[in-house]
Amino acid sequence: MTRRQVTALALGAWWLLVNGAGAVPPGFRAGAHAEDISPTKFPAPVNGGMKGAFATGIHDPMLARCLALHDGRQALVLVTVDACLLPREITEEARRIASQATGIPGSQILMAATHTHSAAALTPAFQSDPDPEYVKTVGPRIAKGIIQAVANLEEAEFGWAFASDPDHVFNRRWYLKPGQSYENPFGILTDRAQMNPGQVNPKVSVPTGPVDQDVGVIAVRGASDHRPIALFANYSLHYVGGNPAISADYFGAFAGEIASRLKVTDARYAGKPPFVGILSNGTSGNINGVNFGSPLRRKLNPGEQILTVARSVADAVMEAYDVIPWKRTVTLDSEECELQLGVRKGTAADLEQAVKWMESIPKDPDGQWSDRKAIYARETVKLSQYPDKVPVKLQLHRIDALTVAAIPCEVFVEIGLELKRMSPFDRHFTVSLANGYNGYLPTPEHHALGGYETWRARSSYLEVEASLKMVKALEGMFANLKSRSSQP
Predict the structure, then answer these.
(1) Where are the beta strands (DSSP E) in 236-359?
(2) Residues 291 and 353 grouped into a single domain
(3) Domain membership of residue 255 as a residue range
(4) 3-state secondary structure of 115
(5) Cα–Cα distance between 74 and 392 in angstroms, integer?
(6) What's the structural domain count of the chain?
(7) Chunked in runs of 10, what are the mean pLDDT values of the chain (488 residues)?
């Protein structure tokens, strides 16, 4: 797309926001667009493991899936990006470009990674570093998707509902039995929780926490023809895996499934903007799709489980969709705040030990470490270069009687469930990995248990009290939204 075309698109989006459609005062409107952000240069670095990996091709593309809403007074844009991790630098750049083009404040743009482990890397993670030339292209491409979604705004109906899919969510952290132990990467034997302990491991007893089986659903359709415009869902499952990279994992497969169920290719809708299916990641920091209390399941073909989960979640979504009460009048409202939270760094002794391990432990022939002590020693050194405090952005959005929180972490399920109880509106869900990346977010109780998600690294570095401070801030944001909702 040329600079002139981008300018024309931005002006069109701005005109729609300011003036509405024609001379009639605008009611609720919605627009959607999916923008391809896949890499074009291979091999492409991929996040997701403790060793860096590379993709040699594309199985299914990485997309920035954008949904724009406007209630006649205020806008809200919801974006998911098919990426493992989405750094703050990219989200801020995309938000700045999109805000300048559309006039929508950044506080009204939610932008989150899905957390597929089969996507081109956008930020360093363990021994995986992104291609800096590719990274430079991503923010503007996401912004282009947002601008197009706004340009696609049309008079619409809105609805939301909740369904349940308990079949694919399992707490992946398990208590060790009394007398059992294992050595963590820091040479410590006191951890009382183990992530992914293996099938029917005799050393563990029961999971350390609950799951969230909810599937939240936001849907918009054309006001006159009831054409499905977009559907935004939320499910608290970490990821599935199994496809060769590049792949959007079950998030992408779900989008295809829900499009098929809604028959969006009906000839009646020819010439209209394409339907966009979106699945966001809920509070899945300690949740995955493997039941470690049962014997190992049969070996699956590549991508088989991705399709199984996508179809299952789509089944649940359709149950909710079929009973949605549609509305033409919807109120949108948003809150945003930024906290300064402490970084957990190693002590001088920790740093000295880390340097010794890095010097003494040999690397593999590929130039990377397999030894976890060396891998985490490198993380200790990397974290020593971090500031003592980092900014953490929180958002809370009201859409009708539904609230949606955005947290830039891999949020533990207990936090998501607490926010659902806390919301003063009818229902709530949380989008994780949103508006940046600040690592795992365990509760203080889980920090005390130890285990992978608490181990000090760039993937888990916020202060132990971080979750309490975030929940407290969101409690005030809930109160502000509620107070404004009662004003005439």
Answers:
(1) 276-281, 287-288, 332-342
(2) no
(3) 3-168+209-332
(4) coil
(5) 24
(6) 2
(7) 44 47 63 98 94 96 98 97 98 98 98 97 97 98 98 98 98 98 97 96 98 98 96 98 92 98 88 96 97 83 93 98 96 98 98 98 97 98 98 98 98 98 98 98 98 98 98 98 90
The neighbour count for residue 146, using CB atoms within 10 Å, is: 29
Q: 242 and 361 share a domain?
A: no
Contacts of 368 (CB under 8 A, 6+ apart): 51, 52, 127
Task: Name the pTM for this structure.
Answer: 0.95
Cis peptide upstream of residue 43 (ω within 30 degrees of 0): yes
Q: List beta partners, residue 35.
A: 64
Pull the structure tokens for residue 21: 């459609």
CA 302 and chain centroid, separation: 23
With a CB cutoff of 8 Å and minimum separation 6, the contacts of 174 are: 193, 194, 195, 197, 201, 204, 205, 206, 207, 208, 292
Report the distance separating Cα 184 and Cα 190, nearest Å: 8
Phi, psi of 82 (to 5 degrees): -75, 85
Backbone angles phi, psi at 418, to 5 degrees: -65, -40
Nearest to 60 by CA among 209, 252, 234, 202: 252
Q: How far is it between the farthest Cα atoms of the chain?
A: 75
Q: Quick one: 133 and 81 in the same domain?
A: yes
Q: Confirm whether 31 is domain-assigned.
A: yes
Strand order in the sheet with 332-342: 332-342, 389-399, 402-406, 427-431
Beta bridge partners of 410: 440
Is 440 exposed, middle or buried, given 0-12, 13-18 or 19+ CB atoms closer than 10 A?
Answer: buried
The reply to whether 464 falls in a domain is no
